[in-house]
């Protein structure tokens, strides 16, 4: 059977609900700044699950379900670099000075990437990709507190990209938070431990 397109369907006088996936940035007036076109270094199809603009408004990072992470110039749309992280990308954060990009991948790792070159500086195993609001970073950017879609919470030393300790909530993770100095950590999950707070040393409060 031939596949129908919109042009083959008579919608006159009918209400149509349409889902569109446009990976384009807009200005304050709703005008399209640029499109993800091959001449700018983008593939013909970009399946994005995560998008993040840098603090200085210089870069836009786009993470795809196919594992590709792109960093582009936010004004021109030109791709500066791309790297495959071997699993769908679900969480992207820039450091305050925009020099480092942290990205969560479906291969279970949290990656530390040089924003200037795209070089992987390190990675820490956190079990699975992270939901939105599931990657908290301390004010001094030395530690990250994560919880995976499978419910494993991890405290990560971001300088060494080493997991210091983990806690299994026995259910899907929803969110993490920490105080500015990382002295207290909190999480939310759909597991047996729905809400729990820890001291930095791992003691449950």
Give me a quick take on this structure.
With 205 residues, the protein is mostly beta strands. Helices cover 0% and strands 45% of the residues. The mean pLDDT is 91.
Strand composition percent: 35-45%
Question: Residue-averaged pLDDT, rounded?
Answer: 91
Provide the spatial order of strands within the biggest beta sheet. Answer: 1-2-3-4
Parts with pLDDT < 50 across at least 5 consecutive residues: none
Give the helix proportion (percent range).
Answer: under 10%
| Biggest pleated-sheet summary | 4 strands, antiparallel
Shape designation = globular
Structural class by sheet pairing and helices = mainly beta
Helix count, per DSSP?
Answer: 0
Give the N-to-C terminal Cα separation: 61 Å
Order of helices and strands: EEEEEEEEEEEEEEE
Radius of gyration: 20 Å
Strand elements, count: 15
Task: Kindly describe this structure.
With 205 residues, the chain is an all-beta fold. The chain has strands spanning 48-53, 59-64, 68-73, 79-84, 89-94, 100-105, 109-114, 120-125, 130-137, 143-148, 152-157, 162-168, 173-178, 184-189, 195-199. The strands form four sheets. The chain has a four-stranded antiparallel beta sheet, with no helix packed on it. The mean pLDDT is 91.
Q: Layout of helices and strands, plus pairs?
A:
Blueprint: E1 48-53, E2 59-64, E3 68-73, E4 79-84, E5 89-94, E6 100-105, E7 109-114, E8 120-125, E9 130-137, E10 143-148, E11 152-157, E12 162-168, E13 173-178, E14 184-189, E15 195-199
